[in-house]
Specification:
7-stranded parallel sheet; Rossmann fold; single chain; two-stranded antiparallel ribbon; 16 helices; 10% strand
């Protein structure tokens, strides 16, 4: 009975945490997973470090570790050992101590590598199950509707500039900004129904909408657009979303294809930011959000130029953040995974393995995270729990192994699908 009381007390603390419900749920899932690992005495520290890296709720992760240890005790390690050695076919034995203590980890290592491997493998399996179950349980407890709450921006004459606003993530970000009361300047290529999109947002949210249909790879059009904005509007938010990429053998693409990626993903983003900096500084607090990609964290065969261009966006954004953080301009860079923005992209996504498909979020959900974290002044935004795990993969997996995995996965994609898609 005492164990149940302490466990429910932990759940009670979760309800009173002041953070985004998604962050709390993910923190609890992380702590539940680490609580199954054979590192007693260090689980709390590991949870704090991992939660800090993944930017999820640290208190929630620690509460989950505590709850896991209280609820399961030594039993879970005995079960994990049995499960691991059974599945791996390892013939070894472990004498369990009478009680949990810091000396247990020493006891594990003294018992041999087979014992540690069995405990770890079994712990990973039960940890995944515990993390999945606890994530959905905590999410339900905290009420999923709370995740929909918006932090409104005071209605003024200030504007948010959104490039690539006619479809996909750009369109969803524009809608998210409109919900928060920001007037909008929408930018996209000609003939992409931008006027209709603007009129719809204006009628729904009673805000001012301006739009410009231009090709940002054209230097003259970019200059004219920036001058038009600076002469007529006070810009509080700049969202550089416009981008282009694709999957194709490098030797098979045209020079125009390569140039288009570099001009839009790099040159247009940098120049538009540079030309609007003084405008942004007129506000006591302004925001820049640059859209990179999960692809920016590592090289990818058959994409080559696209990941490199997004790696530039990441590096540029982090450097600019350091320059401007004390001048009233917060610079964020977001790394979304794949998004099913249209039929063509959906077909490409379906060609990938389950791991890659598990990172997929809707543009609407990604936009919600982007705008919320931008307004919180997060300099690095990685939407979605699976994308955060993918980030860990990029940071820990050897490059040579990444290249093998991506060459095989993307190679299947380019066999049957179109080579070009828009970010």
């Amino acid at each position: 009975m005492n164990i149940l009381k302490r466990t429910f007390k932990g759940f009670g603390q979760i309800v009173h945490l002041k953070d985004n419900p998604e962050s709390i749920a993910r923190g609890f899932a992380l702590g539940s997973f680490i609580g199954m690992m054979p590192i007693p005495g260090f689980q709390m520290l590991v949870s704090l470090v991992c939660a800090s890296v993944l930017k999820i709720n640290k208190k929630s992760a620690c509460i989950a570790v505590f709850n896991t240890n209280v609820a399961t005790g030594l039993f879970v390690f005995a079960f994990n050992f049995w499960l691991g050695k059974t599945l791996l076919g390892i013939d070894t034995e472990l004498v369990m101590p009478e009680k949990m203590s810091f000396g247990f980890i020493k006891h594990i290592f003294n018992s041999g590598i087979d014992v540690f491997i069995s405990l770890t493998f079994g712990g990973v399996i039960t940890g995944i199950l515990a993390a999945t179950a606890s994530y959905w349980l905590i999410k339900k407890i905290l009420n999923k509707d709370k995740m929909k709450k918006l932090k409104p921006v005071e209605k003024t004459g200030q504007y948010a500039v959104v490039t690539g606003a006619s479809l996909g993530l750009g369109k969803a970000i524009a809608s998210e900004c409109a919900k928060r009361g920001l007037n909008l300047i929408l930018i996209s290529l000609p003939n992409e129904n931008l006027k209709r999109i603007g009129a719809d947002l204006q009628s729904r949210y009673n805000i001012d909408i301006e739009y410009k249909e231009v090709d940002l790879t054209n230097e003259s059009e970019l200059d004219q657009t920036a001058q038009w904005i600076n002469n007529n509007f006070n810009v509080k938010v700049l969202i550089n979303n416009a981008g282009v990429g694709g999957s194709m053998q490098f030797q098979a693409v045209s020079a125009h294809y390569i140039d288009n990626i570099i001009l839009l993903n790099i040159r247009a983003l940098v120049l538009l930011t540079h030309k609007l900096i003084d405008n942004l500084k007129e506000n006591s607090q302004a925001y820049i959000l640059n859209v990179a990609s999960m692809a920016s964290f590592g090289p990818m065969p058959y994409k080559t130029v696209y990941p490199a261009s997004k790696a530039f966006v990441y590096s540029f954004s982090r450097g600019l953040w350091a320059e401007l953080k004390n001048e009233g301009i917060s610079v964020s860079v977001v790394h979304p995974g794949g998004m099913a923005t249209n039929k063509g992209v959906s077909e490409r996504i379906n060609k990938h393995n389950r791991l890659i498909k598990s990172t997929i979020l809707t543009p609407e959900r990604t936009a919600e995270i982007c705008v919320r974290q931008m307004l919180k002044k997060d300099s690095l935004i990685i939407p979605g729990f699976m994308n955060k795990l993918s980030w860990v993969f990029f940071k820990t997996c050897p490059i040579w192994l990444q290249l093998i995995i991506f060459k095989r996965s993307i190679g299947r994609e380019i066999e049957t699908l179109s080579s070009k898609c828009y970010a």
